[in-house]
Amino acid sequence: MPATHEPPAEPLTALVRQEWTAFRSRGRLIALTAATLATILLGLLVGVVNRSTCSEGTVEVPCANDPVGPAGQAVSDQFYFAHQPLGENGSITARMTSMTGTITYPPPAHDEIVPGLVPWAKAGIIVKDGTRQGSSYAALMVTGSHGVRMQYDYVHDTAGRPGGVSASSPRWLRLTRAGDTITGEESTDGAHWTTVGTARLPGLPRTALVGLFATSPGDLTLRPTGLGGSIVESRFTQASAVFDNIALAGDGSGTGSRWSHGSVGEMGHTDWERYHRPPGLVESNGTATVTGSGDIAPLDMVGRHTVEDTLVGLVIGLMMVIVLAVRFGSGGYRPGPTGAGLLGGRVLAAKAVVVGAVTFLAGLVAAGVVLPFGTAVLRANGNAVLAVPALTQVRVVVGVAALLAVAAVLALALGVLFRRTWVAILVAISAVVLPYILGALPILPDGVSEWLLRLTPAAGFAVQQTVREYPQVLSHYAPSAGYFPLPWWAGLAVLCGYAAVALGLGMTRPRRTVAPRSQAEWR
């Protein structure tokens, strides 16, 4: 019997060109364009329909934007500040003998005002680049439940000794400035000092402000909803601290001068502050009592928009991409000499390259348009949007494009693995989109939502996250509040893992002969 020889395999580049020719039918290009436009238009719609105004007396005005810290992120910078000038070399020392507070309407008795401090209530001494919100600072403080801390430039936090403060157990605090370096020390007796931490504040002016401060963030509670989910609620709190043995030293310091004082950020507008205890500074017999509310920290998400709010259309766009990729995988063929074709591993690889590349480019266009323009529309309508650094926005744009591309490759492979197109579409949407929707809505318990977004392909949605979890910020760190359990790169890696497994199974599946289809048939 004469030997038979299979024709040599075509180069992968030639297969890619063939699959690109097969992909670029009018129907597929229209579907891809529709997915891109859906992502953009729905994102812009969010900015159009959301309008917010604030009141100044009887006049409504656009709400002010949140302050931005030295690193370009949105921050909370609200506290009561008693201050004097301090030159390039100097120090402030103070003894704190008391720290008390008030929590308004805590659960379960929501009609009661009780004494107490929230865990991250703060009072102590601070060096700051003026009174502008978002300016650089370094502070040494006593907290409600986390002992002594040194914090600077909003995101940095160093722990000192644990425990609280009282008249029988006072806390001595000291900040020393040497140029742009600030050193924080604490003591229990004013004689033996322990260094808590050191901060470098580039650009700190020759004359900064130094003094006493007090602040207290909102008390967060969770209201049950759905099947075990929850919605966060915040209540006003206030902190007061008593200082004595206050000493300033160094060149350019205000030693011997009276304290200038006022609030950094808006304060004093609640009924509690108006009719009970207003924020401020009270001096008496060598002591200074400072009362304030707010926080000095990265901004939490409660009541604010994020740039990823403009990506609300991503779910619709992704489902359209999934349908397109499944149909491309289940309906593709490679022409053969007999008018039929063999769908093998090399053809599948070529299809994956094509569908991944085109959806990546479509994702770049969609996210690259909707993120900046959608955010601008939100802000133009008076909405507060958490500021993020420019590089983070670029990462989100590229990440969204990668999410669409990898999800398309996964859907393509499922289209090859399953015999029926509608089954592959249902499986792909159930695996990629449905867990994200269930996790993003306050329906399921937080733990269930977190595991859904760890273990399923929906983990890839983490690429859109711009907010971070900070230990020194009391917030509801759950998917329903916008926090993903995995970092963006890990979430994308989970999705890539599923796509790689599905693609590998599709490549090792026995080849099947597929009858050629008309070029006019878009799928």
Automatic annotation (TrEMBL):
The alphabetized UniProt keywords are:
Membrane, Transmembrane, Transmembrane helix
The transmembrane segments are 29-49, 311-328, 348-374, 394-416, 423-444, 486-507
Look up keyword Transmembrane helix and say if it applies. yes
Matches recorded under SUPFAM superfamilies: Concanavalin A-like lectins/glucanases
Gene3D superfamilies for this protein:
2.60.120.200
Name of the protein this chain belongs to: DUF1349 domain-containing protein
Q: Which organism is it from?
A: Plantactinospora solaniradicis
What does UniProt list as this organism's lineage?
Answer: Bacteria, Bacillati, Actinomycetota, Actinomycetes, Micromonosporales
